[in-house]
Amino acid sequence: MQNQLFTHNDLDGVSCGILAKYAFPTNIEVHYHSVNSLDYQVEKFLNEFGKKTNFQLYITDLSVNKENELKLNEYTSKGGNIQLIDHHKTALHFNEYEWGIVKVEEAEGKLASATSLFYTYLVERNFIQPTAILDEYVELVRQYDTWEWEKNDNFLAKRLNDLLYMQSIEEFEESMLERINQQAHFSFDEFEEKILAIEEKKTDRYIRRKRRELVQTTINDLCVGIVHAESYHSELGNALGKEYPHLDCISMLNMGSKKISFRTIHDHVDVSDLASKYGGGGHAKASGCQITKEAYKEFVEKPFSIKSLKEDSRNNQYNNKVRCSHYENKEDDQFLLYQDGKEQWIIEKNHVLLPEAHPSFETAERFLKRSFSAGLSKDEKLIDYLVQSYDGMK
């Protein structure tokens, strides 16, 4: 029987391809796809081989549209062999079919990746025998794809993804298969360590530049940060989310590929729901969609005239979010955040007290930043504001 694999072109999907080539070294044809090119490939497969049953088709880390879903089910009813393995919640309905395996979480309660699910599938069917290096590699991919690497400070997982995007998929495949077959445990070689260190410095510079271009707006009741970015989406989205925790999510627009990537650091926000409103999907904390006409209007046209978000001033001595903090936005509004005699936190805007009172500094600052796109100002702005307030009391 001839084997074919259609899989995603990110680290999780490519690693499914690596596992497939490890399991079927002489009998597997692997095709890597974006979310939007899969359905075309499936239609092509069904047109060419729809009447043949000597094929085993694997689909991993991606799911097909409704039309192809029905066609694949019809193909299996006539003896065709299909196995779809995915971990996105938008694909859970494929579990209704005998040929679908979709799990958002693994049995032990940790989040699943397509690679970890495919690995379990291949081991349970004796296509491969588990080894220490395979276990380590699959876990690195799983932690990166589910963002557990950050919680665990597992920078080896992040560097594995960096390495993929520094070379072609074919080069990455060859390199990973070679070490899986030859090494007892996973590691990078000396040259890879050096180029990864250089890449990390390049990424940091890119994030610093893009941080100055971020704009803030409200979309579908979410406070959204929008930035145009062609690369480093995972790193950029994560860094901006931490820098601006008052934002519900970060949206990164790539006008060349006409795609939007969504990232969030918050457990209460599910960006796959936001992406689904524009025909996309993905994970709760990382998802994406195409720039449709509706998405263009919300994420490009409407925010076009908005000024970039004011950054918090760094290295202050006095204006440092302790007792009395001064903020400003790019409309030259000034704000003073401080605690009143009732131990509530209140805000002045241009020396006029706002009516809202807040139970903590964090909730007050969140309100301030979400409502007025303000950032912490430099020390001298706090001093000037307090002097003006004192002069006004005379």
Structural commentary:
With 394 residues, this protein is of the alpha/beta class. The chain has three domains: 187 residues, Rossmann fold, CATH 3.40.50; 96 residues, Diaminopimelate Epimerase, Chain A, domain 1; 70 residues. 42% of the residues lie in helices and 21% in strands. The strands form three sheets. Strands 6-7-8-9-11-10 form a six-stranded mixed β-sheet. Strands 2-1-3-4-5 form a five-stranded parallel β-sheet, sandwiched between helices. Strands 15-14-13-12-16 form a five-stranded antiparallel β-sheet, with helices on both faces. α1 crosses α8. The longest helix has 22 residues. It is elongated, with a radius of gyration of 25 Å. The N and C termini lie far apart (91 Å). The relative contact order is 0.07. It comes from Metabacillus rhizolycopersici. It holds the Pfam family DHHA1. This is Oligoribonuclease.
Chain-wise SSE layout:
Layout lengths: L1 E7 L2 H13 L5 E5 L4 H12 L5 E6 L5 H12 L3 E6 L13 E3 L11 H11 L7 H15 L1 H4 L3 H10 L4 H14 L7 H22 L3 E5 L2 E7 L4 H11 L5 E6 L4 E5 L7 H6 L4 E2 L3 E5 L2 H9 L22 E5 L5 E6 L5 E5 L2 E7 L2 H12 L2 E2 L2 H15 L1
Parallel strand pairs: 1-2, 1-3, 3-4, 4-5, 7-8
Antiparallel strand pairs: 6-7, 8-9, 9-11, 10-11, 12-13, 12-16, 13-14, 14-15
Helix pairs in contact: 1-4, 1-8, 2-3, 4-5, 5-7, 9-10
Brief summary:
This protein has helices at 11-23, 38-49, 66-77, 114-124, 132-146, 148-151, 155-164, 169-182, 190-211, 233-243, 271-276, 293-301, 361-372, 379-393, and strands spanning 2-8, 29-33, 55-60, 81-86, 100-102, 215-219, 222-228, 249-254, 259-263, 281-282, 286-290, 324-328, 334-339, 345-349, 352-358, 375-376. It has 394 residues and is an alpha/beta fold. A six-stranded mixed β-sheet has the order 6-7-8-9-11-10. It has a five-stranded parallel β-sheet with strand order 2-1-3-4-5, sandwiched between helices.
